[in-house]
Amino acid sequence: MPNVHIGSSFDDFLEDTGALAETNAVAIKRVIAWEIQQKIELEHISKSTMAKRMNTSRSALDRLLDPNNTSVTLHTLDNAAKALGKTLKIELA
Q1: Mean pLDDT of the chain
Q2: Strand, helix or coil at 83?
Q3: Which is more confidently placed, 4 or 84?
Q4: Which SUPFAM superfamilies match (predicted)?
Q5: How far apart are CA 35 and CA 40, in angstroms?
Q6: What is the pLDDT of residue 7?
Q7: How open is the CA angle 74-53-25, to the nearest 5 degrees?
Q8: Tell me, what's the pLDDT at 5?
Q9: What is the CATH number of the domain that holds 46?
Q10: What is the pLDDT of residues 3-19, one digit of tens each?
Q11: Is 84 strand, coil or helix?
């Protein structure tokens, strides 16, 4: 017997309030920023060195590593991946 106290999903709620896209963007950015930060720490790369590898400034790197700043370009993500010896893969699901 289905539970009568269960309503719509949280995603449905966010979609109804217009916050789903922004919430998803922040969640994705937090994961990406965390993964990049973990790799930087694992390889003992300074922020200055990472910025140089990416051909960018430290402030741009700080924006990339800010988990709440979702205004990052694909070019920046690709540069970060290359600087860490990785490739950027983006997929629509």
Answers
A1: 88
A2: helix
A3: 84
A4: lambda repressor-like DNA-binding domains
A5: 9
A6: 66
A7: 25
A8: 62
A9: 1.10.260
A10: 666 767 766 776 777 77
A11: coil
Long-range interactions of 26-31: CB distance < 8 A, separation 24+: 26/67, 26/68, 26/70, 29/67, 29/68, 29/69, 29/70, 29/72, 30/67, 30/68
Instruction: Write out the residue range of the structural domain in which residue 70 sits.
Output: 10-83
Distance CA 12, CA 29 (A): 21
**CB of 20 closer than 8 Å to CB of 12:** no
Alpha carbons 73 and 64: distance in angstroms, whole number:
9
User: What is the 8-class DSSP label of residue 56?
Assistant: S
- The C-alpha atoms of residue 80 and residue 93 are separated, in whole angstroms, by 23
Give the integer Cα–Cα distance in Å for 42 and 59: 21
Indicate the number of domains in the chain: 1
Higher pLDDT, 38 or 21: 38
The rounded distance, in Å, linking the Cα atoms of 34 and 16 is 29
Domain assignment present for residue 90? The answer is no
